[in-house]
Amino acid sequence: DVYKRQTRVFPKIVYHALASFERPLSVVCAMGCGRSYGQESSFFAKKNLGIFQSKIWDALERDFQTSTTAFVTDIGNDLAYEVPVETVVEWVKACLDRLEKVGAHIVMNDLPMSALRGVGASRYRLFRTVFFPYCRLSWSEMLDRAEKLSEQLHTISNSRNIPIFIGEKEDHHLDPIHPRSVALMQTWREMFALAGIELLENYIAENRFLLTRYLRSLRPESWRFFWLQRHSQQPCGRLHDGTTIELY
After folding, report:
1. Cβ(38)–Cβ(244) below 8 Å
2. Continuous segment of H or E residues that includes residue 27
3. By the number of CB atoms within 10 A of the CB, which of 42, 71, 139, 141 ranks highest?
4. Can you tell me the mean pLDDT for 108-130?
């Protein structure tokens, strides 16, 4: 289904976390294709609350005494909903405020500007029509907003001393937003390194294939599919070493 396809990168992140920290871990994530930071958003038939409105913050505040590493990614999604850059920046700052409140070590992900600049008007219209059919921004308008948002993210990075990951154009192919599958592990290796965390080379999952299948089967605390509101009790996953998974 649509949700399973959204979780392509999630097992790789969990695997990297398992190979980088002492276990058991508490993995808490708010994800979803096209997820907005500050308003309800939909991707095909699936709808999610904005990240700022989700219950992920209750989970983080509950475990605030533990050491937390946070990755703030996919910040450009809201541009496709024609949200003004200034508003997106305020939403991101509000999320960073909450993360800093619990003492999290934060890494931000910049927009993939090197890949976006090479998209061109025709490919942009194709992606916009398929994935964000209600967006009416022209290619030049979208690129201008993306440039401004990226500049603002670097300003935030400098002012708050938060590392920011900048991907390479070669990591992308037809999809200018998401890295190619072969580049995903290296991308997250570099993002963990920005947080001061190195991969433990001696870690080997008992069965990486089954772990991936299991993680892709997990469901978030709340989402809407067409008109049906659905819920899943959290933590929605638990690994053999005691690691828990919560999705919001």
Report:
1. no
2. strand 26-29
3. 71
4. 90
